[in-house]
Design goal:
Elements (H helix, E strand, L loop, with lengths): L14 H12 L4 H11 L13 E5 L11 H8 L4 E5 L6 H4 L1 H12 L3
Parallel strand pairs: 1-2
Length: 113
């Protein structure tokens, strides 16, 4: 399935949304320059200038950025002050995989709930 690398539970995702995501990826003219930049320079983050609270939701079954190895740089170098939430059995896109839980975790953190 088209969502296999980003979600574990896709049965609740409307086929129209999946089609839009695929068309968005295929039609993205900025993808090649973005990948070239990332391969050349990485994704530097100046954590000292992040002056607001940050919560990171990371799925332990992420197939694109595997937990915990891929998170080490983010957790130790880029966002050491962040509040980290590990979501068991969730892949790369918690907002699609477990939308209600992801929304509650974000809203609960921002105080908007």
């Amino acid at each position: 399935m088209a969502t296999g690398r980003i979600v574990t539970h896709s049965e609740h995702i409307a086929p129209e949304l999946i089609a839009r995501r695929l068309l968005g990826v295929v039609g993205c003219s900025g993808l090649e320059p973005l990948l070239a930049l990332a391969l050349r320079d990485g994704y530097p983050v100046d954590a000292e200038h992040v002056k607001f609270p940050v919560r990171v939701l990371w799925g332990t079954d992420d197939a694109l950025l595997p937990w915990p190895a891929a998170a080490t740089r983010y957790r130790e170098q880029w966002l050491p002050h962040a509040d980290w939430v590990e979501l068991d059995g969730v892949r790369h896109s918690p907002q699609l995989d477990v939308p209600l839980e992801a929304a509650q975790l974000v809203l609960g953190f921002t105080g908007a709930a």
